[in-house]
Design a protein that fits this description.
Layout (H helix, E strand, L loop, with lengths): L1 H13 L17 H14 L27 H8 L4
């Protein structure tokens, strides 16, 4: 979250005072509970999303790893975990 807050500050400053509304919310794409919590929190707070920036992805882990829900990590994170 600290890195996200730093990035959001840099993005806001780069927009030259347009006062963008940036909101940072935690989301673990390897956990369907986290995805569900994110969606619930988001929809309770907003009625639309103009831009959603997910900074996550898994590519070819050297060993079989699983998500919190027991799915293979790459499929679970990159495909099943992405809110849509």
């Amino acid at each position: 979250m600290q890195r996200a807050e730093t990035a959001a500050g840099e993005i806001a400053r780069s927009l030259y005072g347009d006062n963008p509304q940036l909101d940072i919310m935690q989301l673990d794409l390897a956990s369907l509970n986290s995805v569900s919590d994110f969606v619930s929190t988001f929809t309770a707070k907003y009625d639309r999303c103009d831009v959603l920036l997910n900074n996550a992805g898994v590519m070819a882990p050297p060993n079989r790893l699983e998500t919190a829900d027991g799915f293979e990590l790459q499929i679970g994170t990159n495909h099943l975990g992405a809110p849509h």
